[in-house]
Write a structure and sequence with these properties.
Blueprint: E1 2-10, E2 15-22, H1 31-46, E3 51-56, H2 61-69, E4 73-84, E5 87-97, H3 98-103
Parallel strand pairs: 2-3
Antiparallel strand pairs: 1-2, 3-5, 4-5
């Protein structure tokens, strides 16, 4: 279906980066929201993180919407920070802080059709 996880763990700074991808057939069902909610809870509760970052392509509107629903805040544009398909690409820098995570109301994933 896809993958998600925390990487680039900087224990001294109590931060890491969130990465995720989801196969086309699994999109729009709330699966990644559910998975990331668990990953974020693990990071803040068991890894004692203060900051979780995510870099998102500016045209990936579904990922931007997901990150925003999870409480991430856009901090700016990383110019030509990514490189794939033979070209440098801009990425948007998002982050979620421990205090924001603790204060945010829990959001449920979108309802499933026929559920």
């Amino acid at each position: 279906l896809g993958t998600c996880g925390l990487f680039k763990w900087n224990r001294a700074w109590r931060s890491c980066t969130l990465g995720y991808e989801l196969g086309r057939d699994a999109r729009g069902k709330g699966l990644m929201h559910e998975a990331l909610s668990i990953v974020l809870a693990w990071g803040f509760e068991h890894m004692s993180l203060n900051r979780i970052e995510a870099q998102i392509h500016p045209e990936n509107h579904a990922s931007i919407k997901l990150a925003t629903r999870l409480g991430f805040v856009c901090e700016g544009r990383l110019r030509e920070a990514g490189f794939w398909l033979g070209a440098h690409r801009d990425l948007l820098q998002y982050a979620l802080l421990r205090a924001e995570y603790a204060a945010a109301p829990t959001t449920a994933p979108p309802s499933q059709p026929g559920a």
